[in-house]
Design brief:
binds uridine-5'-diphosphate; Ribosomal Protein S5, domain 2; alpha+beta; about 260 residues; five-stranded mixed sheet; single chain; globular; 4 helices
Length: about 260
């Protein structure tokens, strides 16, 4: 990242290595409520990324010195499975995952109504099962759905999405080759309803004009990803409603 490389990332038709147009996302699938033991959960497939998010809480924060008497604390842990990347990743936290965990926690602090839960902790686990560039954005997108599935009160969902620059072209949602050989990558977390930006990072270099173009592309894409998140939650609520109906029916049968 940073230098223009000799590897051709945009072909003569203006298409990218995987055939996408500059402003095209990889295919995204979202499912809510995939884990029984967590308070909320979500599974996201985003291109070749596979990511699971689980939420516990709000629950009493432990150890107690972590407690804040005015609001809940958000503790996010982003973790890459050893088998998630091509060279086996050494298990456990490293500098990168500690930093990503911190910035994701801060992004969610902007939308979760933490003041409703003093002395509590809301724990968010992001497990990267398969990585192919863009895992922090896919992880944020999954975590937002898991938080909603857990019933954590939020001002809105949060969408993670990146844009950047490859072969002197501004592109949306960089794939692995583009991440490796591209010129810039700008991951963002966006609150779709307000357009607020709660996370913004940049790796590489681009002009101010290119940066604004990249941010515009991500804003536009966030609206679409937001709809996918809400669809996943609607499907989840339909399943819950059906399960409750069946439970009531079986209780009624027992009474008769
Ligand atoms: N990656 C890897 N090993 C690592 C960290 C990252 O192979 O220890 C790969 C992985 O495919 C990841 C990509 O490099 O998705 C880009 O990593 P980056 O740090 O830019 O974060 P991401 O784009 O996943 O948020």
């Amino acid at each position: 990242m940073g230098m223009k490389s000799d590897i051709k990332l945009i072909d003569e038709n203006g298409l990218r290595i995987d055939g996408r147009k500059p402003d095209e996302l990889r295919p995204i699938k979202i499912e809510a409520g995939v884990l029984k033991r967590a308070d909320g959960s979500a599974y996201v497939e985003w291109g070749k990324n596979k990511i699971l998010a689980a939420v516990y809480g709000p629950r009493e924060a432990h150890p107690r010195h972590l407690q804040d008497s005015t609001k809940a604390i958000i503790q996010c842990r982003y973790n890459m499975a050893p088998f998630s990347v091509s060279d086996r990743k050494r298990p456990g936290p490293d500098r990168r995952s500690v930093e990503i965990s911190k910035i994701i926690s801060e992004a969610f602090e902007s939308v979760i109504m933490t003041e409703l839960f003093p002395r509590s902790s809301i724990d968010v686990f992001i497990e990267v099962l398969q990585a192919n560039a863009g895992t922090r954005c896919a992880g944020i997108t999954a975590a937002a759905v898991a938080l909603a599935d857990a019933g954590v009160p939020m001002k809105d969902l949060v969408v993670g999405v990146a844009a950047g620059k490859v072969d002197d072209t501004v592109v949306l949602d960089l794939g692995k080759e583009e991440d490796n050989y591209g010129q810039a990558d700008v991951p963002m977390a966006i609150v779709p309803r307000t357009g607020d930006i709660v996370l913004l990072q940049m790796d590489g270099d681009m002009t101010e004009e290119e940066l604004f173009k990249a941010m515009d592309m991500s804003m536009e894409a966030a609206k679409y990803i937001y709809e996918l998140q809400k669809d996943a939650l609607r499907r989840r609520y339909a399943v819950i409603a059906q399960e409750e109906k069946e439970e009531i029916e079986s209780i009624e049968e027992g009474i008769e």
